[in-house]
Design a protein that fits this description.
The structure is a single chain. The chain is an alpha/beta fold. Helix 5 crosses helix 8. About 5% of the residues have low confidence. The radius of gyration is 17 Å and the shape is globular. It is about 45% helix and about 20% strand.
Length: about 240
């Protein structure tokens, strides 16, 4: 049973981080904070399955509680080398426990993405992860992802977006807040989370994300999903 996210029902005492408190309720937080999270995850898996061969390496950057890789393992008959990388010990612990409970073989590693060698990957996944990487390191990481992929390799990237149109940007944020209220978050919780994520989550525009993929060397990039200020990109090496 998922624990209910009540992280922001109390005053903020520190900058947002993926600690034990967040990890314990993260699955609930995702389902209530990210529009169409489950549907988007299933879409990525269904697309990815069409490109997979036996023993392919699939790497999830910012694997959190392991949901993507666990679902992929459950939905394919192929033997795959599945690796989840996260720098949060609490997330890694929960991911390992979940994988064990589902009886799937996944390696979860507590490490910095920029330090870990995930070369020869068939696919790299980064769902709502790149937005937490400081801008000065972001393009370096995307280039590393490109270099780490096999030829014809695939990169999935889901991100929160901003737009340069000020009025539209405000409308998009307001629509997102309506979504969160519909999912049971109070105005206090929404305001507290926004404050906690300030200068921690730094979103780019659609154009900036596309340019970043192009600059890294990806030959093709498409948007396969978008809702308001959330989008998922697929890029091919």
């Amino acid at each position: 049973m998922k624990l209910k996210d009540k992280v922001f029902t109390k005053p903020i005492e520190k900058q947002f981080e993926f600690d034990e408190e967040v990890a314990s309720v993260f699955d609930d937080m995702l389902s209530r904070s990210v529009p169409f999270y489950k549907e988007n995850l299933n879409l990525q898996i269904n697309i990815l399955k069409n490109f997979l061969d036996e023993n392919d390496k699939i790497v999830d950057l910012g694997s959190s509680t392991g949901t993507f890789l666990i679902e992929l393992a459950k939905k394919t008959d192929k033997k795959l080398d599945l690796i989840g990388i996260d720098n949060s010990p609490a997330m890694i612990k929960r991911a390992k426990n979940k994988a064990k409970a589902f009886g799937v073989d996944i390696k979860f590693v507590e490490e910095d993405f920029l330090n870990y060698d995930f070369s020869d990957s068939k696919a790299v996944i980064a769902n709502y992860t790149i937005q937490f990487i400081r801008p000065l390191k972001r393009e370096k990481l995307i280039k590393k992802i490109y270099d780490s992929l096999m030829n014809e390799g695939i990169f999935f990237m889901s991100e929160k977006l901003i737009t340069n149109h000020k009025k539209l940007n405000k409308i998009m944020i307001d629509e997102y807040y309506k979504f969160k209220k519909k999912m049971g978050y109070s105005e206090y919780e929404i305001a507290r989370k926004r404050e906690a994520l300030e200068n921690v989550l730094i979103p780019y525009t659609m154009e900036e994300n596309m340019e970043m993929l192009k600059n890294a060397g990806f030959k093709e990039a498409e948007v396969i999903f978008r809702w308001n200020n959330f989008a998922t990109f697929i890029a091919f090496k």
